[in-house]
Fold these 2 entries.
Entry 1:
Amino acid sequence: MKTVYEKSAGLTDVPLHYCPGCTHGIIHKLVAESLVELGVLGRAIAVAPVGCAVFAYDYFNCDAQEAAHGRAPAVATGIKRVHPDAIVFTYQGDGDLASIGMAEIVHAAMRGENLTVIFVNNAIYGMTGGQMAPTTLVGQRTTTSPLGRSRSGQGAPLRICEMLATIEATAYVARVSVHTVPRLTAAKRAIKKAFQLQMDNKGFSLVEVLSTCPTNWGLSPVEALRWVEQTMIPVYPLGVYKDLEGGT
Amino acid sequence: MKGNEVIAAAAINAGCRYFFGYPITPQNEIPEYMARELPKVGGVYVQAESEVAAINMVYGAAGAGARVLTSSSSPGISLMQEGISYIAGAELPCVLVNIMRAGPGLGGVQPSQADYFQATKGGGHGDYHVLVLAPANLQEAADLTQSAFDLADRYRNPVMVLADGMIGQLMEPVELLPARPAVDLPPKDWATTGTATSGGRRRVINSLYLYPDQLEQHVHALYAKYAAMEHAEVRYELHQCDDAEVVIVAYGTTSRIARSAIEKCRRLGLRVGLLRPITLYPFPFAAFEQVIARTQAFLVVEMSMGQMLDDVKIAVAGRKPISFYGRTGGIVPTPEEVVKQVQALLGGGP
């Protein structure tokens, strides 16, 4: 029998715990495939966040360290300074990176740490049950913005790529999505490029991946994918925000 | 060399090659020394954006298998407590230096010993301990810093060198131990170095145990380690205790003052000795048994409102009276003040 598809060697056999319709699993796959295809899985060290992806250390088939909430870029800095030849990446959600870990992400970028950040933005706190995040859209209902996020008092979404692109030492900053197959293909290209830049010692790279949260958005998986297209992308435009090498 | 520089130099001699920290008075000579000297030995100094980030960089580097140091002073150590709890939970070796200043809050920059509870009773969340070493002079600061790295590696646990601004700024002659080959320590076969270097076996640094029975088992394993420390690593000094009717209990800077006070007392014919804990955790409870029979009373002297006092109460267990003399806010007690306390206890002298 001919094998037409198989699980990436970059993932372990541990069953993923993600909710049905959540795109974390797809993003894990893209990261794992990228590490394998670039031939660096054996020298990869993952830093897992606090949030839905807290068990990422069980899923990626490489060494890993679990970080405190928001601190993954600092932990990754410590690892990378000790093992400059390792391929070090953090995998962080929007509560982790854009709220409690804002100082760590900005300063890792400022120092031009030669590491890669996979930033999964689903505009909500998933693990804790659907609370408002700094990335929650204006008007979006969450358990802590039951009337919808209000510009007055709760502010408007933080756009991480746009912000980090202004930092001199960032090498690559891009926002992608995985809600359609073509988008998914482009997302993998961006992730691979980010790792390639780290392999070439070009400095800090971040790929923001728009992700779904059907459970806490109160939508079916298909509706959630549509919500990304119609509601999230207008607020979080896809594209390359910084590329030291030019091009995409 | 100042005390702070002695600690930094001893760390490098111990094989420490990574330092992550954030400026705060009165310990700045440590990061400054490391920024200057670490690159010369192939090491790395990173000035973090905060103490919160610094301790997490320490976590990453320790998990990657390095000998790593951070230093700070009281408010900065408070900020590090989350990370220290994670480091203890994940069983990572590292050395922390706290050059204490007066609190609470922003407090002041003068010497203090008011972080005793924080250092010895956990500090962050959860069931854990940090091994705490309290040098009283610069030679000891050098020697204890050097052995702190070995202790950290042996027990896979954070070790804190706890001193204060007085010791940090003090100048005394010191002989640094030569950079020595690593003592007989277990291999770091748990460190994340990439699976290509470990025969394909995945290594994970983690403190998350969602199943209560697994977490309880993990905490029991930590406590078995602490029991081993309590058995093997207790250090203390007895000074002129053989005939002492009053035993002063003091560590670090206040033990130096106690020593001067004891000299003065002896000249007045007062029989006074010193019990000086060198490890604050594990606390030298058993040392009290050596002096308790002859002692009429204990006098605890601290630069705090009485924190080590609680451990002395546990050690003495109501068998003899305990007095306390403390100054706080950054005030260092004088030997004369301590002599007066002894006189009040023994009724001797003018």
Note: Residues 171 and 244 of chain A are 5 Å apart (CA to CA).
Entry 2:
Amino acid sequence: MAEAAGLTFAARVALEGLDLEAAFEIRPGERVALVGPSGAGKTTCLHLVAGLRSAEHALITLDGRPLTDTQRGIDVPPHRRDVGLVFQDLALFPHLDALANVSYGLGARGRPRGQVREAAARWLEEVGLADLGPRPVTALSGGERQRVALARAMAAGPRVLLLDEPFSGLDVVTRNEVRAGLRAFLATLTIPALLVTHDALEALMFGDRLVVLEQGRVTQSGSWSELASRPRSSYVAALTGFNLLRATLAPGAGSRTARAGPLELAVQSDEPAGEVWLAFAPTAVLLVPQRFGVSTRNWFLCRMRESLPLGGHVRVMLDGGTPLVADVSQEAADALGLEPGSTIWAWIEATAIRVYR
Amino acid sequence: MEDQAPRWARAGWALRVSSLLLPLFLALPLVSLVLRLDPRAWLEHVASPVALRAFVLTLETTAVATVLSAALGLPLAWLLARHRFRGSDVVDTLVALPVTIPPVVVGVALLMAFGRQGLVGRAFDLLGIHVAFTSVAVVMAQMTIASPFFVRAARAGFEAVDPALEHAALTLGASPWRVFWTVSVPLARPALFAGLVLCWARALSEFGATMMFAGNFPGRTQTLSLAVMSAMESDLDTAVAVASLSLLLGLAALLVARGAARRWWVAGG
């Protein structure tokens, strides 16, 4: 078996209420965001890589070395895997100060005491906490604790870095700070990094590539723009903010119709007839009080469900027989006088609809 | 002192008065015992060879029993806290049983196992080893009765340690053995200490099992509680004096436990 550098992961596990069956790989220096709804099995994947849980069938290799290979009966214990894991709730040792937390991994590897303290101090400096070494971790702020957790994981010299929703415990202001710091740090990494999140912005910021896990299956993977332009599940569409419809494309070529539930849309496509995805950006949906003469096609009378001011523009959730999302400018929203329950006309330009299988 | 409790939580007078009944009931015998002491005679009785020997023997045997209980109970408590394994329910029951059956019965059972005619004792007898009715038997009786108290407390302590902390230590490269000593034990320390004190206190008050399995031989197996019983048969003043020694030890155990708990909680342990 020709083993690639970096992390390769393939596993099948039966969990309570979920069958996980997923595979992905991360090259050295690549940052992958593992995204998906809660309960999709994201954390389980991390724990499988770290060896904290076992699988019925799994093949996990790191830089060519098998960590788990159920076929060959290989299961390297967690403390010999060289996997760095930043836990969701950080799991800092509450009985140790910041420096001792960071030193823990080096000490466990039996390095001389002086060398350990020196290296740990360097790591604390690296994350900008040089002065806080003697501080008990219980006395640190959320952002500081987060950085100690990162320094602790990195000081042990891992060959892969796993981060489990590293920002979930932080308030908004701290989160933005820590995100920026972590992003800069990850950019310098030469080992593979895997970040678990269910936040679209974090996935966009941290993932060179996204792997979408839904109900234990990888439903899609690729760069953000690939996912955004061709979402293949309603989750990915919601994550990237796109409208996504499953539709049946009529026979023909060029201008034709596609039926998505109660809606009939005019589209431009040379795809063969049959089941297709239709995706279009919320900005491709025009909202007006009255129909007018640009086109006779793709007009839908919708009921307004909800509108969210997002600073500069307003995201409008509509029900036109099927849920639709539209982005309009603040001025346009004010002029339309959007009220939940009111009806409004939506127009979608045929050429703005992407059609794919 | 200012009452900090919210209005609804402040007990009415009926609750307050009735909640004082049990403390009164508990205090009365102890106060009576202390009042019965004659300070001059007390010193004489306490310094008597029989009382001193019982006191020293009690300290020695309970110390050994507590240390052995901790040494053997610590890994067991961790295992019970962290893992469900085949037979873990059986082990759990075995550890709980000595708490629920009368110590006298435990003493008889120990004799059946380690007595001269006992299951294991018979083999020991062939080798010329006799444990029943020796100081070793005192320690064994105390361990059987008292070690479950340590295991229960330690288990609860380990269960309260977030498993993620042990997992984190593992991923940082620490062996399970190292994780146990550098993460699990330090974090469970208040509970472990409470368990030690409980275990020691229970060993101090051991009577029934010791009586059955070790007998009541001054200087060899006669601990304080056995000495009290022997003294009762001849001289009440001696009995009261020796009993007061036992009371002091029990009080000391309680105060040490409380002091340590306070220090650890304040330190944020």
Note: The longest helix of chain A spans residues 172-187.
